[in-house]
Design brief:
It is a single chain. The chain is α/β, with parallel strands linked by helices. The chain folds into two domains: 162 residues, no CATH class; 177 residues, NAD(P)-binding Rossmann-like Domain (Rossmann fold). Helices cover 36% and strands 21% of the residues. It is built from 13 helices and 15 strands. The strands form three sheets. It has a six-stranded parallel β-sheet with strand order 12-11-10-13-14-15, with helices on both faces. The longest helix is centred in the last third of the chain and has 16 residues. The protein is elongated, with a radius of gyration of 23 Å. The relative contact order is 0.08.
């Protein structure tokens, strides 16, 4: 599944290429609680079709109503350009009306009829894997593109709005077993592009998750070919040290934002010693490895373990610290040890 920003931009570009009037709406500021984060986008076509989201639905309904032929904007916006700034939730009554959380306020920038050529250029760069910065001039709606070196938060001053768009988040899984199928499925509907690597033909033959790319390279070659960046996560799930270690040796030296491995606490400790003593990985590199992988939710089945892994990946992606209370190792070393439970009592073998 493509990430939501790419879907919104592609849909908007298609509308504009067909000569349809459309607006691009961006969340630029929030105060208090907000249903959607800064940088969220949606597009609205002249026929009322919406893609993307800036709230839980009520603000989208108001934007549609505003831009109906009999709405506040009427048909005037069909030929106009430029931008407009809107603010919702200024009063308690308005916050309640638009379904905003208590005290929530958000500010939007509405961009009227973005140029189709500029949108196509942006999409072409994104499809080629480039990170791009789009700078919108608020006075007249002119948009300029430039390559970006790193992801950046949305920025707005009195004259411009600058947003960074990049290729979607990617997940590389080592091992094509049942757990990988569940995790791949969750990653796909979370907007990740998923590649599964397993040179063991008996595992890839039965792979059944559409939308995920399956490769049979050796894991270290797959990691190298992936060229991990700060939008890439890599998870070793094969339970075969020969395969998992090959991948981890490359992944831990990369820019991947998340590197994890399945395995019990004992297996993780043995892996750490092995990779440091025999393969000369540094302590700092090994400190990046998350394992036992996932957050502690008492998971027992492959599907539950996949939920715990996906939750940790999303938390790290969103910059949320995974506290000791949620860490699998800490939870098992602490509360579970006091209860006399073992790894096998709480999860699948090797978890």
């Amino acid at each position: 599944m493509e990430n939501i920003d790419f879907i919104v931009l592609k849909t908007l570009a298609d509308w504009r290429a067909r000569g349809l009037a459309a607006i691009l709406v961006t969340v630029v500021r929030t105060w208090g609680s907000s249903p959607r984060p800064i940088g969220s986008i949606m597009a609205l076509c002249q026929d009322g079709t919406v893609t993307g989201s800036v709230s839980g639905g009520c603000i989208e309904d108001d934007l549609i109503a505003r831009h109906r032929p009999d709405g506040a904007e009427g048909t005037r916006w069909h030929a106009r350009g430029g931008t407009e700034r809107l603010k919702y939730g200024v009063t308690a009554d308005e916050a309640h009306r638009f379904g905003l959380p208590c005290g929530g306020t958000l500010e939007l920038v509405v961009e009227y009829n973005p140029q189709a050529d500029g949108l196509r250029d942006l999409l072409r760069h994104l499809e080629s894997g480039h990170l791009m910065r789009r700078t919108l001039r608020l006075s007249d709606g002119h948009a300029a593109l430039a390559a970006a070196e790193a992801p950046a938060d949305l920025r707005m001053d009195g004259r411009t709005l600058s947003a960074t768009f990049g290729p979607g988040y990617r997940m590389l899984l080592i091992g094509a077993g049942q757990l990988a199928e569940y995790l791949a499925t969750m990653a796909l509907f979370s907007g990740f592009t998923v590649t599964v690597c397993d040179p063991r033909i008996e595992y890839t033959r039965g792979w059944s998750v559409p939308g995920a790319t399956v490769v049979t390279d050796m894991p270290d070659d797959a990691v190298t070919a992936c060229r991990p960046d700060r939008r890439t996560c890599i998870v070793a799930l094969s339970h075969d040290p020969k395969l998992d270690d090959l991948a981890l040796m490359e992944a831990l030296e990369s820019d991947a934002f998340y590197v994890g491995a399945i395995g019990s606490r004992r297996n993780q400790d043995a892996r750490r010693r092995r990779l440091i003593q025999h393969f000369e990985l540094s302590e700092a590199a090994m400190d990046r490895l998350r394992g036992p992988v996932g957050i502690f939710i008492g998971s027992k089945t492959p599907s539950e373990i996949a939920v715990s892994i996906m939750a940790e990946i999303i938390a790290v992606k969103n910059g949320i610290p995974v506290t000791k209370a949620l860490d699998v190792r800490s939870a098992k070393d602490g509360g579970l040890a006091l209860a006399g439970l073992t790894d096998s009592a709480c999860a699948l073998p090797g978890r």
